What we know:
alpha+beta; 5 helices; elongated
Amino acid sequence: MGLGALLTMPAAHFDFAPRRRPGGFLGWLLLALGIGGVILASLRWQELVRAREALNWHLMNLPPPVAAEAPPSPGTSAGEMSLQYVRERLQASWQPVFAALEASGSNNVALIEVQATGRSGRIEIHARAKNLADALEFVARLQRQSAFKDVLMTENKRSSGEGQDLDFQVHGSIVP
């Protein structure tokens, strides 16, 4: 075949028409399931990240281990031990605790009861506020005081009726 024969050949035109596919309900269903799976996996991932952060926060804020107390001498009676305990507690300075409570005070919060346990170093405060914002502000001020640690509001309840005062409990630890 020569060059002349190639030049005289008619040109070939190819028309590629797309092949019609029927509507794919199964395809759309799989796409929707895939998108839903990705959304659920990302939500679960975020939940796991928040749980890990909360666990790390709790682990960082655990109180240090308490050193074991020396056992009493063999000849010490229970009365002498309790007397020794009271003597140690009376010699401890409570002034930093009272100063911290006074510094955290507010005109909008009334302290009703303060219970301090010397042996465990825990403090429980029962107070009353006009609203939740005042109570939370009081707890935040207590948390900033160096005499306390691990201060948390554990319970709050409003007296019956609107406009009544809010009673709340605060628990924490006294820094020795």
